[in-house]
UniProtKB/TrEMBL annotation:
<feature type="domain" description="Nudix hydrolase">
    <location>
        <begin position="1"/>
        <end position="129"/>
    </location>
</feature>
<keyword id="KW-0460">Magnesium</keyword>
<dbReference type="InterPro" id="IPR020476">
    <property type="entry name" value="Nudix_hydrolase"/>
</dbReference>
<dbReference type="InterPro" id="IPR047127">
    <property type="entry name" value="MutT-like"/>
</dbReference>
<dbReference type="InterPro" id="IPR015797">
    <property type="entry name" value="NUDIX_hydrolase-like_dom_sf"/>
</dbReference>
<dbReference type="InterPro" id="IPR000086">
    <property type="entry name" value="NUDIX_hydrolase_dom"/>
</dbReference>
<dbReference type="GO" id="GO:0006281">
    <property type="term" value="P:DNA repair"/>
</dbReference>
<dbReference type="GO" id="GO:0044716">
    <property type="term" value="F:8-oxo-GDP phosphatase activity"/>
</dbReference>
<keyword id="KW-0234">DNA repair</keyword>
<keyword id="KW-0378">Hydrolase</keyword>
<dbReference type="GO" id="GO:0046872">
    <property type="term" value="F:metal ion binding"/>
</dbReference>
<keyword id="KW-0227">DNA damage</keyword>
<dbReference type="Pfam" id="PF00293">
    <property type="entry name" value="NUDIX"/>
</dbReference>
<dbReference type="GO" id="GO:0035539">
    <property type="term" value="F:8-oxo-7,8-dihydrodeoxyguanosine triphosphate pyrophosphatase activity"/>
</dbReference>
<keyword id="KW-0479">Metal-binding</keyword>
<dbReference type="InterPro" id="IPR020084">
    <property type="entry name" value="NUDIX_hydrolase_CS"/>
</dbReference>
<dbReference type="GO" id="GO:0006260">
    <property type="term" value="P:DNA replication"/>
</dbReference>
Length: 130
């Protein structure tokens, strides 16, 4: 079974968290996720998340703190995903790899179909939203 190690950015602004919709492809088609991606060989989670957000969203970020790691078994692969609370240094989160994105407040947090693996992280940040 394929295993992927992923870093995910939790970006919170004005009490809302940034969530983006995956393209219509693969097991996670059209699910909503925290932006990020797979770690490269020998790369730290912190370095991966900064690189991925630059690549995917043309935005410079900084890691504020590591939050937690989720293990999840999908039908076709397993995932280890670490979430990092991050802040934007420069850039406008320009979508290049997602269908669309939303800033979700506490009341809207579960209004999008999240990727299954994300649910524990979503629950973990609920208290940071307004
Ligand atoms: N980025 C991200 N991926 C997630 C989340 N939840 C979740 O199950 N995944 C899964 C979907 C993908 O199978 C995998 C991450 O792959 P990806 O396609 O985003 O990563 P990548 O940019 O490095 O991929 P690639 O273009 O090199 O194939 O993790 C999440 O919140 N964020």
């Amino acid at each position: 079974m394929k295993h992927v190690t992923v870093a995910a950015a939790i970006l919170i602004k004005d009490g809302k968290v940034f969530s983006a919709q995956r393209k219509d492809f693969g097991e996670m088609a059209k699910r909503w996720e925290f932006p990020g991606g797979k770690l490269e060989e020998g790369e730290s989670g912190e370095a991966a998340i900064v690189r991925e957000i630059k690549e995917e969203l043309d935005t410079d970020i900084r890691v504020i703190k590591y939050l937690s790691t989720v293990e999840y078994q999908y039908k076709t692969f397993s995932i280890t995903m670490s979430g990092y609370l991050c802040e934007i240094l420069a850039g406008d989160l320009v979508l290049s790899e997602h269908l669309c994105a939303k800033w979700l407040g506490k009341d809207e947090l579960y209004s999008v179909p999240w990727a299954d693996a994300d649910i524990p992280l979503v629950q973990a940040i609920e208290g940071m939203l307004v």
